[in-house]
Design brief:
Length: 225
């Protein structure tokens, strides 16, 4: 793709391994974005160090400083909008955002969720997947709407649940896929290849086979597109 890299803002709350995956893809030249800022609601978020190390500006908007959720959302919007991003990415951002915030970024707000949505919305997805005895688990990148973890899915990747898995071993297997599909979804977005029709995401105007599932074996193909 030609032209200037797309300005993006990334929101995090903790470890920041998905942020690191985005930083790595960007540095390698595979992701035509300019990360204008990484913003965390948690001053202790490890991910802030990843941003510093990559020379990306960081900000902290500590949710504990606001008595009302709407005030926190407003402060966050102000901080984000100073960077005029084309895209806002929730990369392990663990606060629920209000209606006004979500409406403001409608169609340009992405989230990574550790399950094969619509299965296991919300928290503790790996424990719940094991308890349910599901054979396949995975990760999804979706547009954020007011329906929590229910917005249109852009891309998913599945992993098998293996005998003897614990929540931690399963989480690690899913996390590797998160690191793979989040940059893919971002790239599709900034290349202008995504659209939404009837609450369904289209890639290049078409519904993707298998509801957007990217099998791990497609990795090489996807990375070179
Ligand atoms: C990821 O599993 C993400 O899907 C979930 O929180 C975790 C964040 O991990 N929402 P990290 O901060 O990107 O390492």
């Amino acid at each position: 793709m030609s032209g200037a890299p797309a300005p993006v803002v990334i929101l995090i709350s903790g470890r920041g391994s998905n942020l690191q995956a985005i930083l790595d893809e960007t540095r390698s030249g595979r992701l035509p974005i300019k990360i204008r800022a990484v913003i965390s609601n948690n001053p202790e978020a490890e991910g802030l160090q990843h941003a510093h190390a990559a020379g990306v500006p960081t900000e902290v908007i500590d949710h504990r400083a606001y008595s009302e959720r709407t005030q926190f959302d407003a402060a966050l919007m102000q901080a984000i909008d100073r960077h005029s991003p084309r895209l806002v990415i929730l990369a392990g951002f663990m606060r629920i955002l209000g209606e006004t915030f979500i409406r403001h970024y409608a169609g340009r707000l992405l989230n990574i969720h550790p399950s094969l949505l619509p299965a296991f919305k919300g928290l503790n997805t790996h424990v719940r997947a094991l308890a349910a005895g599901t054979a396949q688990h995975g990760a999804s990148v979706h547009f954020v709407t007011n329906d929590l973890d229910g917005g249109p899915v852009i891309v998913q990747a599945s992993v098998p649940v293996r005998t003897g898995d614990t929540a931690d071993t399963l989480a690690a297997r899913v996390l590797r896929e998160e690191h793979r599909i989040l940059p893919i979804a971002i790239r599709w977005f900034v290349e202008g290849r995504l659209s939404i029709r009837n609450r369904q995401v289209l890639l290049d105007g078409e519904i993707r086979p298998e509801q957007g599932l990217v099998a791990a074996t497609d990795q090489r193909t996807e990375a070179t597109k």
